Amino acid sequence: MTAEICRKCGKEKSIRTSLTHDIIYACSVFDRKLYRIEYYKKNKDKIAEYQAEYRKKNKDKIAENKAEYYKKNKDKIAEYYKKNKDKIAENKAEYYKKNKDKIAEYYKKNKDKKAEYGKKIKKKVMNFYSSGEMRCRDCKEDILELLTIEHINGGGVKQRKEMRSHNIYKWLIKENFPPGYAVLCIRCNWLKGKVSKERYEEILQEIKQRDAIMIKA
Q1: How many domains does the chain have?
Q2: Contact 125, 118 (CB under 8 A)
Q3: Both 132 and 205 in a single domain?
């Protein structure tokens, strides 16, 4: 067992001989850390239960604190991810490999809950970028499942590649709804990248005329 010198008493102590209350309160920070490690090992189920209960009761406060921390440190966080992206990806892959059955079971149990959460954050984003109208800016489609986010100045493909598995809606909320985005339906968003501006305007007029006829009928 590796030994270290206690900062207070100056005596050499090993991990095994340091775990007593007399030493904990009389000696170094090192010994107190060892006590906390041992305490966690003995009480991890109780601690996990307490933490789960705390998160349940304080989820809004926790989310607010996370958002505030990210806002203050987003450049630092971005720099860290940029420098360590390969290591992070490797750790994620290793974790998934070791826990894939557990992860699959979790997603199976929480499928409906995750779908509801995804719908909730999408609504929040669509509501903001459509100024409360919750519909496509160009053709006025209002079915939520058909609505998407348009990158007004382009660069959507590049951003999706950089974000990898990150959810665009979560990112927009975390960034406090930055400018440069709008709400379009899947059809309009696809058409804008496939046809000329003039043809796009023609198609919109055709859609409006068709919809007007259907309403009258």
Answers
A1: 3
A2: no
A3: yes
Alpha helices, H only, the chain: 15-18, 21-26, 29-57, 59-109, 111-129, 156-163, 168-174, 186-192, 197-216
CB count within 10 Å of CB 34 equals 21
Burial 114-138 (b: 16+ CB within 10 A, else e): eeeeeeeebeebbeebbeeeebbbb
**What pTM value is reported for the model?**
0.60
Given 41, 57, 73, the domain boundary residue is 57
Residue among 213, 216, 60, 192 at smallest CA distance from 136 = 192
CA separation, residue 6 to residues 16, 32, 101 (Å): 14, 11, 44
Which of 199, 159, 197, 212 has its CA nearest to residue 181? 159
**Chunked in runs of 10, what are the mean pLDDT values of the chain (217 residues)?**
61 52 46 78 90 90 87 87 88 91 89 90 95 93 94 80 73 89 94 91 89 70
Domain that holds residue 196: 125-216
Determine the Cα angle at 171 with ends 191 and 193, to 5°.
10
| 184 domain-assigned | yes
Largest CA distance in the chain: 92
Picking from 138, 112, 114, 107, the residue whose alpha carbon sits closest to that of residue 208 is: 138
84 and 138 housed in the same domain: no
